Predict the structure.
Amino acid sequence: MSELQRTSEKDVARVVRIRIEETRKMLDEAMRDMSVPEPDFVAASAHLGAARDVMPYIDRNGDVL
């Protein structure tokens, strides 16, 4: 059983919101990397990878994994 499965729905929602916000920040950084006259593909790729690592996964049943 994962840590999120042992907590209340309110706590899970708080963790998911935090992870979504962190994902948003990393995606914003990736967008900045690409929105300059000389795009930095390496930095953008790193930010996208970090965003994927942090982004929560919610399945069709609403379970957070």
